[in-house]
Specification:
This protein has about 140 residues and is an alpha+beta fold. It has one domain: Nuclear Transport Factor 2, Chain: A, CATH 3.10.450. The chain is built from three helices and seven strands. A seven-stranded antiparallel sheet has the order 1-2-3-4-5-6-7, covered by helices on one side. A hairpin with a 2-residue loop joins strand 6 and strand 7.
Length: about 140
């Protein structure tokens, strides 16, 4: 019976990984609940970003908030979706000059573990990053 149970568990784990299911460590889920208790009022979806875990919840697309944790449950950053009116003016000026007529995708205000703020603007499927004052970073 022990061998059958082990084979079943391993087979289930392999099947889940092959179907895109993500096994999120309990410590990471606990860290999310502790830091953002409001997140549990929503359906949370999980993604892997390299070796880190990303929790998404809220908004129409379910990604109004996107939080990144390490496998050891250390907070990395949160990205909160924002309207273009909340972007610093230099961001809009830069986009108008360098991406004339481009359709903007997701817009986000990023707060990291060190308390730094930056902005992400998705353009042509890639994130363009600006510092807290709206200056282009990358």
């Amino acid at each position: 019976m022990g061998l059958v149970a082990i084979v079943f568990i391993l087979g289930t784990a392999i099947f889940a990984q092959n179907n895109g299911a993500i096994v999120v460590p309990t410590a990471v889920k606990t860290a999310l609940n502790s830091k953002y208790p409001e997140s549990h009022s929503y359906h949370i979806t999980w993604e892997k970003e390299k070796s880190n875990y990303e929790a998404n919840w809220g908004g129409k697309d379910g990604e109004a908030n996107s939080v990144l944790f390490t496998p050891k449950s250390e907070f990395i950053e949160i990205v909160k979706a924002i309207p273009s009116s909340e972007l610093p003016k230099p961001v809009l000026t830069y986009i108008a000059a360098h991406y004339k007529g481009a359709k903007l995708g997701d817009l986000g205000k990023v707060s990291d573990a060190k308390g730094r703020t930056s902005y992400e603007v998705e353009i042509h499927g890639k994130d363009v990053i600006f510092d807290e004052n709206g200056n282009f970073v990358k």
